[in-house]
Amino acid sequence: MRESTNYQAILRKGRNEGLIEGRVSGAQRMLLAQGEIRFGTPDETTRSAIEAIRDIERLERMCLQILDTNIHDWEGLLATP
């Protein structure tokens, strides 16, 4: 069974999903930590909104946008597409 192509594909898919989930979770934690320094502690709605974002590319863009001096609050940061 372990040698089967389907079994190996399932294992690879699970590993890939785990890696992506780890990246998403790490980016969310970093965004919340950086945002807390810049904007203050997020309210529960903001925290939930960030934790609901599963798009790693968007989270990474948001981590960069936090450095933009034109972004003044959590709401502005969450507007990042």
Features:
single chain; 81 residues; mainly alpha; 4 helices
How do you describe this structure in short?
It contains four helices and no strands.
- Percent of residues in helices: over 70%
Low-confidence stretches: none
Evaluate the radius of gyration. 17 Å
Q: Tell me the strand percentage band.
A: under 5%
Shape label: elongated
Structure annotation, total helices: 4
DSSP summary, beta strand count: 0
Counting helices, strands and paired strands, the structural category is mainly alpha
Major sheet details: none
- C-alpha termini separation: 44 Å
Q: Overall pLDDT, averaged?
A: 87
The succession of helices and strands, N to C, reads HHHH
Summarize the structure in words.
With 81 residues, the protein is an all-alpha fold. It contains four helices and no strands. α1 (5-39) packs parallel to α3 (56-65).
